[in-house]
């Protein structure tokens, strides 16, 4: 059985004071959760989040990481900088990084390898745009992105890998894939992982749904056999809402 994992992606929200308030409210709400709980915060909030969650069942993740260990990469953060302060997870290849900041399948792969080699657990995002969905290319897109993301990644890293299927057209729009459609696409991703690694490996890797999951639809989505969790955007910015998704 794959343990469910619910991860909050705060995006560019919350200053340090707001982080303290949100995390302090969240801790007692999710302390008995069966699912693994992760909060992914902006860089400036990471240290505060790590300190506040010590001794709790909440892990902290970053929203991006660079592939180089150090160097002339102004504005970037390396994997060792994250592990040094106690960060456990990192989101890689989010559609907003691909759309606004030039992330490609190749750079996603480089970040994945660097993060895993540094001991981070990765949440790797794949998903199609509205145009690709309407053109019937969903399966091709998620297959291509999945294969590219894990090029040259060893199967001994599978315990540190989470994949998030996030249809781009459903992120922040309030639109959500139906539970059946999300499950079907995640099955395609799992079948692809079986070819990239091995069939038994793919059965161990947790795959989240990441397109406007919220307290109202979390139960139906999480009831699907292929869906192992959620990458939560807007609903992760309110402790009560996020805890309701965690407990789905």
Please give a handful of descriptors for the protein shown.
eight-stranded parallel sheet, single chain, 248 residues, TIM Barrel, alpha/beta
Annotate the secondary structure layout.
Blueprint lengths: L4 E5 L6 H15 L5 E6 L1 H11 L4 E5 L16 H6 L4 E4 L2 H6 L4 H13 L3 E6 L3 H5 L3 H12 L11 E5 L13 H18 L2 H6 L1 E4 L8 H5 L6 E4 L6 H9 L1
Parallel strand pairs: 1-2, 1-8, 2-3, 3-4, 4-5, 5-6, 6-7
Written description of the protein model:
The structure is a single chain. The chain has a single domain (5-247), classed as Aldolase class I (TIM Barrel). The radius of gyration is 17 Å and the shape is globular. Strand 3, helix 3 (79-84) and strand 4 (89-92) form a beta-alpha-beta unit. It has an 8-stranded parallel β-sheet with strand order 7-6-5-4-3-2-1-8. The mean pLDDT is 96. The chain contains 11 helices and 8 strands. Helices cover 43% and strands 16% of the residues. It is of the alpha/beta class.
Please tell me what the overall shape is: globular
Cα-to-Cα separation, first versus last residue: 18 Å
Unreliable spans are none
Structural class: alpha/beta
Largest sheet: 8 strands, parallel
Bin the strand percentage: 15-25%
The CATH class turns out to be Alpha Beta
What number of structural domains do the residues give? 1
- Proportion in helices: 40-55%
In order across it, which strands form the biggest sheet?
7-6-5-4-3-2-1-8
């Amino acid at each position: 059985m794959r343990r469910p994992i619910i991860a909050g992606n705060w995006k560019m929200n919350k200053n340090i004071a707001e982080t303290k308030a949100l995390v302090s409210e969240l801790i007692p709400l999710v302390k008995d959760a069966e699912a693994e709980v992760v909060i992914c915060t902006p860089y400036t909030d990471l240290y505060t989040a790590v300190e506040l969650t010590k001794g709790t069942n909440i892990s902290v993740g970053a929203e991006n990481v660079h592939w180089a260990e150090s160097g002339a990469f102004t504005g970037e953060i390396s994997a060792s900088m994250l592990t040094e302060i106690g960060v456990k997870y990192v989101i890689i290849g989010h559609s907003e990084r691909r759309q606004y900041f030039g992330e490609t399948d190749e750079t996603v792969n480089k970040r994945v390898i660097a993060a895993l080699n540094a001991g981070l657990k990765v949440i790797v995002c794949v998903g199609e745009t509205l145009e690709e969905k309407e053109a019937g290319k969903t399966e091709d897109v998620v297959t291509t992105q999945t294969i590219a993301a894990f090029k040259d990644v060893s199967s001994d890293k599978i315990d540190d890998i989470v994949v998030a299927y996030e249809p781009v057209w459903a992120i922040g729009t309030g639109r959500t894939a139906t539970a059946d459609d999300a499950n079907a696409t995640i099955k395609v991703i799992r079948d692809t992982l079986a070819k990239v690694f091995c069939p038994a490996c793919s059965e161990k890797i947790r795959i989240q749904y990441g397109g406007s999951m919220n307290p109202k639809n979390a139960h139906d989505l999480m009831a699907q056999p292929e869906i192992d969790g959620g990458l939560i955007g807007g609903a992760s910015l309110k402790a009560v809402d996020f805890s309701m998704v965690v407990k789905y």
